[in-house]
Amino acid sequence: MFCKGCGKELAPDKRFCTSCGRPVSPLSSKEEPGLTAAPPPEAPPSASPLAGPRKRMPKWELPAVIGLVVLIVVVVVLAVVLSGESNRDKAAKFEKKARAYIDSRRYEQAVAECNKAIKLDTKYPDACVTRARAYNGLHEYDKAVLDSDRAIKLDPNNADAYVQRAWAYNNQYEYKKALADGVKGVKLNSGSSDAYVVRSRAYCGLDQNDKALVDSNKAVELDPRNAEAYLARSEVYFQMYKASRDKDDLRKSQADTNKAIELDPKNAMAYIDRSEADGYLGQWDKVIADTTKAISLDQNSGTGYNNRAWAYDNLGQYDKALVDSNKAIELDPTDAAAYVNRGDAYIGLEQYDKGVADTTKAIELNSKLSPAFYKRGYAYCCLQIYDKAMADVNKAIELDPKDDVALVDRGYIYEALGQNENAIVDYKHGLDLNPDNTYARQSLRRLAVPGY
Question: Is the entire prediction scored with pTM above 0.70?
């Protein structure tokens, strides 16, 4: 007999077709037992795939299909997860390149690499911190603060973010804010030399030199190869010298800046810090050499131009001083010392009104800056406005009783007022404070004081 579904010949005892699975109909009453029915005529091919015979899915195929579906789902999920990790990995590579640029002081390139990292992963705190470091290197302190803020928001326990923000605050003279961040940085990472550096700088700015010295010593202890640690300690010794006029402190300051330069010969701030100590020793040629080197390393260093202007003022090269102080003010319009030095240059050029204007601006920016008062006092003296001149130099001496230059300037005013005895007292006192003050010695000789 034959299957009525597919026409395949079947054995008489079969109940199902082995080809298409169709049940075999029992013999009708009209069919004689033992006779085989003729195969039905072959059906024409169907245009529809549904028209053909349907096969039953073997039992082993269903689990295989389910397994395949599960595998596809797992692959898709993994792809989604791994795509996020891949972005972080790519961002980390850009951030690593940025750190290498910072080490070579290529800060603009470092910013560009961090921008790429942050574009790939907007929630990557390390990239924000590194960009803050680069902005600090570029003296763009407002941007450094913003990036540090962003990093802290993403990761409140990121010690480096607090360190970078403290660095920016110190350079903006926001010492209380810098101190708060330095304290937080040390708390989060007590093994960070840089955290102690920024806290030391903040203490120094707040005239807490004892605490600043403890922190800078700790910074050197934690990392004896950290040039910034030596510079922080150098600043402390320098401030201690200004308070005590003990030249041993000045020599310690110079030793630390020399060590910083040895460790990091391309650190512009190290040369600037050394130039300040040289200036207080009256070594103006060394000041010019160090500040010129600093400017060659960092053309955006307003302090470098400012300190060189200071040297030119003291050498009587007022035109050069004017050029450098103008550049310093252009780079940092909030630097009070730059206005003092430009005012000094104007005074040297006998443009006393301009000298008064610049020193007044300096006092507006920093009312505790002794040189601004005594230089304005000297300008008033030259303009024969003696009452204002005396008030200013007295204020300068009140702010810094051991400033020999302020005492010599007051001596000039006493001389102009015909009070030579008072002038001699100030000249002698100034010379006692600084035996290298040639102006005091010359003035005493001019007044025919014996022994000078």
Answer: yes
